[in-house]
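hey m, so remember when u said the tokens were messed up on ur end? i reran from scratch. heres the input so u can diff it against urs
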Amino acid sequence: YHLTWEYSNEKYNYFDDDWYKKAIAPGAKVAWSEPYVDEVSGVAMITVSSPIKKNGRVIGVTTVDIGLEELIRHINKMEVGKSGYSFLISSSGTQLGTLVAEQHPRIENTEQNMKKLKEIANAVIKEDQTGIMETVLNGKGVFVVFTPIGDTGLRLVMVMPVREAFASVQWILTQNIIVLIVAIIALTVMIFRLFEHKVSLPL
């Protein structure tokens, strides 16, 4: 853990911050912030906060900041099948790779791709469960499978080229999609448990 007093100043008015407002909202138990780049450390992170109560009244908020850079890079480098790939999207539709100033290594930086990524993000954030869609990226037809990561607001997105999915006969398509969905759910559980573990560590 890194201890700093740089946040304890007049400029850092956390009472106006999203993580604080969510934590003190009526009925709140655990609240996750939108991923952001910390002004002090310059690190991409997400904040989980929870109200501190005494006699049923909120008297404060406790928070844990979880660094995201290693997770983002790992997900961006992960291969799905032979030529598929994956990435993370926040609840606002932000592709998290942009927080670490990196273009996704498997997605070409073209106007058409940026437009398609925005369309994918808009569709994904509307869903609270695992789903699948078909679109075009890098000029090729792809299947996009997505699922929420617990209640963090993050979505894990996996992309597989349609041509690869249709690699032989119809049963291969079904098998590949099932494997992809199982993999994405399993990875989501692992990521969420990692978050829970970090949150449960003693301060």
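this time it looks ok to me. The first strand starts at residue 31 and ends at 32. if urs says something different then somethings off w ur setup not the seq
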